Amino acid sequence: MKLLMYNAQSYEQANFDRLAEENNVQIDMVNVPLSKDTVDIANGYDAITVQQHSPILDAIVYQKLSSFGIKQISLRTTGFEIINFEAAKESDIKITNVPAYSPRSVSELVLADVMALLRHLKEVHNRQLKNDFSWDGIQAKEIHNLTVGIIGAGTIGSAVARIFRALGATVLVADPIERTDLYDTVEYVTYDHLLANSDVVTMHTPLTKEMEHFMNYDRFKKMKNDAIFINASRGGVVDTDALLSALKVGEIGAAGIDVFEGEETISGINLGSSGYDNDNLEELIQMDNVLVTPHIGFYTDAAVANMDKFATEDAISIYQDKQPKHLVEFE
Description:
Strand order of the largest sheet: 8-7-6-9-10-11-12
Shape: globular
Largest sheet: 7 strands, parallel
Number of helices: 11
Order of helices and strands: EHEEHEHEHHEHEEHEHEHEHEH
Radius of gyration: 21 Å
């Protein structure tokens, strides 16, 4: 059996070597995303896996994969909004993802952002570069005195809930699906109640049509003026113009952003002297009360190993006409 890994990175090489030996398969890597321009590389392979931000919308991609005898696209990611499900269905292409690669990887980044913003570490650092070691305006709050609101408490959101509850915070959750295993950890509330009563609001939802630009200016206005907003889910769940406006006029106090609109051509890339064309991102990066990271919530040794492992195993299962563990259901 031959597997092709699209958009494979050097840090995945050791994982793929191990997986190839363990499963007695050939695994090859190409450092390009799957698209209509690169799909022909898959000709001659039995299965593929993909990790990318750029959408796979062209129906010809799915048609060609099917003509090559490939039955699936196994995503080495949680999100599956890049897939054209109508085209996948028409070409009988199954889609798998990695819904729980390592919930702690994202939740620990959220914790790091919240702690850094609470202690004003970016502002302190920038002051010290100007020989300013004063304490004015940087008194911090302690986590055990805070209320943390989580929008979307699936696998990752529930891990965030448990971390903050362990540190003594009150934890609120807004999610249409309630998890009974969280009843001793969180209180389920409405979105409006969560926004109005939380000192920290953190997003952990997929990017669906219902959640696109869920955090708009009206919702930011409902938050406390000194509240911290965190997005470690998908850039599109936040209206970035609204986020900037809310920060500028003091509707919210600070933000930690690991995902952002337009990141497809930025995150994970050394742009060097060429720079980037994203005015909103540039403005966010300049703010003392904003932390921006290039979609690194997933980027830990345990998480990457699991993403590669689960996607590979699902690809093999579908090739062998077995039921994969992480099939994305769609009509």
